[in-house]
Amino acid sequence: MAFVCLADFQAFAKDNLPKSTWEFIEGGADECITRDENISAYKKIRLRPRFLRDMSVVDTKTTIQGSEISFPVCIAPTGFHCLCWPDGEQSTAKAAEAMNICYVTSTYSSCFYDDIVAGAPNGLRWIQLYVQRDRKITKKLIQKVESLGYKALVLTVDTPALGNRLQDNRNRFSFPALLSTKNIHVPIEENSESLLSVSSIDSSTSWKDIAWLKSITQMPIILKGILTREDAELAISHNVQGILVSNHGGRQLDTVPATIDALTEVVNAVQGRIEVYLDGGIRTGTDVLKALALGARCVFLGRPILWGLTYKGEEGVRQVLNLLKKEFYRSMVFTGCRSISEISQDLVQFSKL
Ligand code: FNR
């Protein structure tokens, strides 16, 4: 089978994963309106090509929080990579290191953080945090990963409760005990509902916890899940260093806007004061270009990484990333952008399709 676009990896994963695992990965909340719009919203944006600009040298490199990455696509946090490949997160981390991009490791990793880092010691890694009800566990986790060389803390703000995922409910989906949340020492019994109801996540988390987090870590803090100008303003007034515009891949509150549609509101509120990133529905190189043109500094991939992992572990993730890198490079060539700094809003127009 030839893999010529990200959708080919998706088809492979669908055919090869157990049905309930596939539906867990692919699923969105309720009617999946937001999950699907994350993708379809890009198709309504048109590009304005520019020519005769000497495109013999094109540089895709950029930086996030001061660290260089080879192109503006990184890996979003997703839990339980061992559902897709035996050594799960270790393979993902190796692929990210080989590609010189950032891997955001989930709180709910199915490999120990030490093993993930040992497999890819030189990779750029950020940690995603779900604040645990037991704050001592949260503090220990943060201090552990900081000592392991994690460079930023990505606080997921959109999960005070778990989204209502109908297929998981129908399948009574539960995580194998082996994949329990190794790093936070909250044992999950086989068939337990405790993770699906995210009972260990502290739903009392609020803006005042940013100061608490700052008191226990030197890592810059990035808020993942901001979708409105009001919360973007609050993020800035609480001195965080970045915002990741995300709707959790449409897995939390259904019918919130597609992330590419929410991006402009957040970017306009932020006014360049901190870095703004985006995830959700990135499937082609032109999607990446459009997100950057509208103000994202970098985008993150969720499900496509899991499809690559299912196909061939580290090699599969690399193939996914390489394919997207080539597509992105080509889209820069066609729009006359020789470097990331030349990507601007003039490249896009919105059609009324
Ligand atoms: C996620 N996501 C997620 N987010 C997070 O902050 N912590 C997590 O542990 C997880 N786990 C997770 C598992 C699975 C299977 C999926 C599909 C997603 C959300 C993820 O970080 C990201 O926001 C979306 O996946 C981005 O959308 P795409 O690229 O999947 O369309």
Automatic annotation (TrEMBL):
Catalytic activity, as annotated: 2-hydroxyoctanoate + O2 = 2-oxooctanoate + H2O2; a (2S)-2-hydroxycarboxylate + O2 = a 2-oxocarboxylate + H2O2
Listed cofactors: FMN
Gene3D superfamilies in UniProt: Aldolase class I (3.20.20.70)
Positions of glyoxylate binding: 165, 248, 251
GO-annotated biological processes: fatty acid alpha-oxidation
InterPro entries associated with the record: Aldolase_TIM (IPR013785), Alpha-hydoxy_acid_DH_FMN (IPR012133), FMN-dep_DH (IPR000262), FMN_HAD (IPR037396), FMN_hydac_DH_AS (IPR008259)
EC number of the protein: 1.1.3.15
Record keywords, A-Z: Flavoprotein, FMN, Oxidoreductase
GO molecular function: (S)-2-hydroxy-acid oxidase activity; FMN binding
Domain FMN hydroxy acid dehydrogenase span(s) in chain numbering: 1-353
Binding residue positions for FMN: 77-79, 106, 128, 130, 156, 224, 246, 279-283, 302-303
Top-level taxon in the UniProt lineage: Eukaryota
Family membership: Belongs to the FMN-dependent alpha-hydroxy acid dehydrogenase family.
Name listed for the protein in its UniProt record: (S)-2-hydroxy-acid oxidase
